[in-house]
């Protein structure tokens, strides 16, 4: 029994690339963040907007990281299983 894992590896690569893009995007947004607390209304609103954007990026980053890890483990498991089944059928 032979499995073609190339589409799944490609999907894992796309999901992993999304995780990397989210990481870079978060770094860019966080660079604009001011770590000191300003009481001025305009600056406070800007800080809240950046914090909200970082929360959304973090949420999607965690979700996509979990998806990438699970998909990677499934692809690796399918590969190992395919190797095991292939060798077992050759010996019989």
Task: Give a written overview of the molecule.
- It is a single chain.
- By secondary structure, this protein is mostly helical.
- The chain has one domain.
- The protein has helices at 6-31, 41-91.
- Helix 1 (6-31) runs antiparallel to helix 2.
- The model has no long low-confidence stretch (mean pLDDT 87).
Précis, in short:
With 92 residues, this protein is mainly alpha-helical.
The SSE order reads HH
Major sheet description: none
Helix content: over 70%
Q: How much of the polypeptide forms β-strand, as a percent range?
A: under 5%
Low-confidence stretches: none
Coarse morphology: rod-shaped
Q: Which structural category fits the helices and strands?
A: mainly alpha
> Any idea how many domains?
1
Radius of gyration: 21 Å
Mean pLDDT: 87
Oligomeric category: single chain
Which features would summarize this protein structure in a list?
92 residues; mainly alpha; rod-shaped; 2 helices
Could you outline the blueprint of secondary structure elements for this entry?
Blueprint: H1 6-31, H2 41-91
């Amino acid at each position: 029994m032979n499995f073609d894992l190339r589409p799944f590896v490609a999907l894992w690569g796309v999901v992993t690339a999304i995780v990397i893009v989210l990481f870079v995007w978060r770094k860019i947004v966080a660079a604009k963040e001011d770590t000191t607390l300003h009481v001025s209304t305009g600056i406070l609103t800007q800080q809240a907007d950046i914090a909200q954007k970082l929360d959304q990026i973090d949420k999607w980053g965690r979700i996509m990281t979990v998806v990438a890890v699970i998909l990677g483990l499934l692809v690796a498991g399918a590969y190992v299983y395919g190797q095991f089944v292939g060798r077992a059928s050759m010996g019989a």
